[in-house]
Amino acid sequence: MLHLKVAQGSDPARTLSFGADVVRLGRAEGNDLVVSEWHVSGEHALVLWAEDHHLVRDLQSTNGTRIVRSGELIDVGASVGREATLRSGDVLLLGDAERPVRIEVRIEEDAEEARIVTVRRLAELEQVEADLGADGQVLRALYEAQKALSGSLDLDELVDALAARVFGLLSRATHVTVAMREEDEHRKAGRYVAIGSRVRGGGGTAPVPITRSVVKKVVAERAAVLAADARRDVGETVSIMSAQILSTMGVPLWQGDEIIGVLQVDNRDGSGVFRERDLDVLCLLAQAASQSFVHARLYARLRLAEEKERKENAYLKRREQTRRDGAIIGEAASMKRLFEQLRKVVHTRVTVLVEGETGTGKELIASAVHYWSERRDKLFVAQNCAAMPENLLESELFGHKKGSFTGATEDKKGLFELADGGTLFLDELGEMPLNLQAKLLRALQEGEIRPLGAAKTIKVDTRIVAATNRDLEKEVKEGRFREDLYYRLKVFPIRVPPLRERTEDVPLLARHFLDRYNQEFGRRIAGFSQEAMEMLQAYAWPGNVRELENEVQRLVIQVEDEAFAQPEHLSPRIRQTEGVAPRRPTTKGTLREMLDEVERRMLLEALKDHHHNKSQTAKTLGITREGLHKKLKAFGIS
Fold first, then answer.
1. Residue 61 in contact with residue 72, Cβ under 8 Å?
2. Is residue 113 part of a domain?
3. 443 belongs to a structural domain
4. 132 Cβ contact partners less than 8 Å away, ≥ 6 residues apart
């Protein structure tokens, strides 16, 4: 029996006793021990019975769970599995470390002495079957039980069916409880937890606790146990006395050598006690039920795993789509034309060829073709054709059969088959070997593939988006790329402009990357100074958007929080543009707008030449200091 006394808290001196295997502690209503302090979580911790001892498990509470034992402080949240053994005399500390709720723990152990009336070990079941074989009524009942139990894969329904058969076969049975072993990766042996209780006549809704002393004997001796007078023969343990059990039977549920559960049947009516024949019948019923519980437990695990996988896949798809949808950034005229092209082609089945320099974001365009289309719910799969040798790339794309080559120990689906109904993005297509280009051409023309070592072809509905930074027309002329494949791919070419052709997008991209890496690294870089941004826009960006992203990532690491990125923070290759920015062509617009831009740049250059000495700057420009201030204010220059 577990006794918990609130020694410090809003309700001191309150003492509660528990005989259940699980005791819930927390602020929310519905807990076994409700603690009202605000710093205690709604579902804060559990106290569990684990075969032969109690343990406390922290439920990822906000302010933690600790144990004081002989002056030593044990942080439960920091221990393996967020749990620790609980002993009589311990003090539980819940919530705030400065003013925790203190709960004193006292544990009364069940008596260990036991005098068992009858034991039926698993190895003796054949003799039990032989002894009951002449009783046709019992055999028919067991046969009907077997049919009823084998037809259910739900654990609750299975407990219902088993309890109904127990009550039908054993007139003295008043309560049936099924306990299953709880698997725990942190312990070699899991504890046995009651998963369902039934009362004859359906009366009562409270769970029936398992009798720990009986369960321990069943598991330890791998045998069925009968106590004709439980309080006398199994020992007057706390759990038996609190449940008022007069007679009890515990029978193992097993799979091979593994005890997966215990079936406990109680008689809480003084009109009669169980006999040895009752135990024999229950043993055969448990034998019929064991495999059903194995299947039901496996089915429950599969359902949980399937549901978890489904939710994870849905979450990852939503996250990927959100990331992809917001990743293409651009307001330049060339990008607007690109977006218009995408909108025209995404809902067709046409093969798309994305052309552009390295780092321009060709994969983002390819993913937009997929995620903006009706194929968005299927897979988007990417493969870099330059990253694998020819034989491995062929297997990766088209799959292979077991034994088709050395190392092919099992069948493998290729990316074409995996992306069936979705989109396959082939990056660096210009690097694909000529032999493999022929198989790709057939897949595009016929819509079918043949895995390595296979005798039959497989129909696939896979849309191809290809990308290259090579001049494929030149590659065709020089014999390094198949002409027929080139024309098959170039049905709808999309050119991604290099960053130097859309410098007006540099501020948008730079701020986007700054926000991303501020969040990712936990930093608070305020932004870019005007001079730093001018240099970023003046730089040619041979590595394109990828190079800009890397530069901003480096700045976020280097610049102090709340500060602005200055020219001295930029890479040397970018600082070489100093003095070049003012001579860039002006942005197209009205005459007034273009003149304002020229004047603004001249002011910036003059300030820089005089190290922001405004008196010297005004003198050089031939204007008064007040006039310079007005111009700087008008252009937003500090």
1. no
2. no
3. yes
4. 138, 139, 280, 281, 284
Range 443-451, long-range pairs (CB < 8 A, 24+ positions): 443/398, 443/416, 444/351, 444/485, 444/488, 444/489, 445/488, 449/397, 449/398, 449/399, 449/414, 449/416, 449/417, 450/398, 451/398, 451/399, 451/400, 451/401, 451/404, 451/411, 451/412, 451/413, 451/414, 451/417
Compute the chain's Rg from CA coordinates: 38
Query: What residues make up the domain containing 50?
Result: 2-107
Q: In whole angstroms, what is the distance from residue 265 CA to residue 131 CA?
A: 22
Q: Please report, for residues 289, 580, 608, the alpha-carbon distance to residue 601 in angstroms, rounded to integers and kept in the order given.
A: 86, 11, 11
The count of other CB atoms within 10 Å of the CB of residue 511 is 15
If asked whether residues 139 and 282 sit together in one domain, one would say: yes
Q: Are residues 468 and 358 in the same domain?
A: yes
Q: Helix or strand or coil: residue 73?
A: strand
Residue 209 φ/ψ, nearest 5 degrees: -70, 145
Which residue is listed with tokens 């052709």? 501
Averaged in consecutive runs of 10 residues, what is the pLDDT profile of the chain (638 residues)? 84 74 86 90 87 84 92 88 89 92 83 52 67 65 77 85 90 90 57 84 62 80 76 47 68 87 86 81 88 88 84 69 65 91 91 92 90 88 88 90 85 91 92 90 91 90 92 91 92 92 92 92 91 89 94 93 91 72 53 79 79 84 87 77
Of 406, 326, 316, 310, give the one whose Cα is nearest residue 361.
326
